[in-house]
Design a protein that fits this description.
Radius of gyration: 25 Å
Shape: globular
Number of domains: 2
CATH class of the largest domain: Mainly Beta
Strand content: over 45%
Number of helices: 1
CATH topology of the largest domain: Neuraminidase
Largest sheet: 6 strands, antiparallel
Length: 447
């Protein structure tokens, strides 16, 4: 029986989001071995091209890790090899043009490592050379123009290092509002710098002209990041807040969800990645509010720092390990219609623009005299209706009123597997009385 409401529509487009992923150990007993006893990871960074940078404070070394290829030493205690050493490194970040910056917490300096491997000290304890010294650099931020910002944990000030190497003081803790024990730094590309103070329990906005505004207070800060659209995210122990571009502050979660948050990362699409130090997980929070646990307690025991690249891959520090979440897809292969023209009420597929790290596949049914769309994976039919997807474990289905989501097992086993879609008329719940001749085949590809 044809559903009356559906029959009124001249054309119905169903949207399928297809995702596939897997969890793996990048560094550890089941991954790459740095060959260093009691090797601990303290900071992570990921480049736009998928390279991961791993910092170990106790060994005073930073590794450059290419997943699936291997790891090499980026910089060690010798620093630039010109007498400027790296002592007790605290933070590694990736800037524009794949330049990497590493801060030495005790050597009171910051190094830039170019893509070719050239190591240059860009600032030392003399700071701007005009009397403002740098003591205990712990936080780094790079804006889209390539300017580096450095905060001193002990000197409680912030310096700017331009792409040409000039150093200037942008904040000094000489008048209210004060910043005590800066633990987070973010530069938005509009000339604004945001600094989070742990002991002062506040967030300062430092404008391009030097103006200083306290935009949040009474919250013991731990980490800060932004999405490039003017929104800033901060965490204080177990709560995450978003400072919107209009200045509105919004609390995004409740206590205990997740447990103990010390770091954040935001990717190019505005997705927020939140590691729970005591809940042993990493969740991805979409800009529209949906959340998904990417790595759970089965694979984590002591989460800390997190970094995401622009390919949808995520990496998290887990004590002496680095655990990764590989985004296997989500590219869709070409759709091939079968029996084209045999039935005017056929299906057409098209690949839509990328949204975040999911691709969308549009399925048009015309005219819409059907109440079921039959999907087949490896020859096994999975019936779906308009607005509801019937799926059994281990399939992970998310349902929307105007979309269908096909979940792919975490082992990425269906990358490259054939899918088939057909329109059907039903006479009862879950019973397809007639499957139309027209069908479309498609496959899931990889990056």
């Amino acid at each position: 029986m044809v559903t009356k409401a559906i029959a009124l529509l001249a054309l119905l487009t169903l949207t399928f989001r297809v995702h596939a992923q897997t969890v793996f150990e990048l560094i550890g007993p089941n991954g790459l071995d740095p060959g260093l006893p009691n090797f601990f990871v303290d900071s992570l960074a990921a480049s736009d091209t998928g390279v991961v940078y791993v910092l170990s404070n106790n060994y005073e070394i930073v590794f450059r890790v290419t997943p699936g290829v291997g790891m090499t030493t980026l910089i060690d205690a010798n620093g630039d090899g010109q007498g400027n050493g790296l002592i007790s490194p605290t933070r590694v970040v990736v800037g524009v043009n794949e330049d990497v910056f590493v801060a030495g917490g005790v050597s009171d300096n910051v190094f830039r490592i170019s893509p070719s491997g050239l190591i240059t000290q860009v600032v030392d304890r003399t700071g701007d050379g005009q009397g403002a010294s740098l003591n205990g650099p712990t936080e780094l931020a790079v804006d889209p123009l390539g300017n580096l910002f450095v905060s001193g944990l002990l000197s409680e000030n912030i310096f700017k290092v331009s792409p040409t190497g000039s150093v200037s003081l942008v904040f000094a803790n000489t008048s209210a509002p004060f910043l005590f024990e800066p633990v987070g730094l973010f530069a938005d590309g509009l000339g604004n710098v945001y600094a989070a103070g742990n002991q002062s329990a506040n967030l300062l906005k430092i404008g391009a002209t030097g103006s200083v505004t306290e935009v949040m207070s009474s919250l013991q800060m731990y980490a800060i990041d932004g999405d490039g659209h003017g929104n800033v995210y901060v965490t204080g122990s177990e709560l995450v807040y978003r400072l919107d571009v209009d200045g509105t502050v919004e609390q995004l979660n409740q206590l205990g969800d997740p447990l103990e948050i010390r770091h954040l990362d935001v990717d190019v699409s505005g997705n927020l990645y939140v590691p729970g130090q005591f809940s042993d997980n990493v969740t991805r929070w979409r800009p529209r509010g949906t959340r998904r646990e990417l790595i759970g307690p089965a694979n984590l025991a002591a989460t800390y720092d997190v970094a995401a690249d622009n390919l949808g891959n995520v990496y998290v520090v887990d004590n002496q390990r680095v655990v990764g979440y590989k985004n296997c897809g989500p590219r869709l292969g070409a759709a091939t219609p079968r029996n084209a023209g045999a039935n005017p009420r056929g299906l057409t597929f098209s690949e839509l623009p990328r949204i975040g790290f999911d691709w969308e596949l549009s399925v048009a049914v015309q005219p819409t005299e059907f109440s079921v769309l039959v999907l087949s994976k490896n020859g096994t039919s999975i019936p779906t209706s308009f607005g509801f997807l019937l799926a059994a474990p281990p399939w992970d289905s998310q349902v929307g009123l105007d979309s269908q989501v096909i979940g792919i097992p975490d082992d990425c086993s269906l990358v490259g597997a054939p899918f088939t879609a057909q329109a059907a008329v039903v006479t009862g719940p879950g019973v397809a009385a007639l499957v139309l001749q027209n069908a479309v085949d498609f496959t899931i590809g990889s990056h």
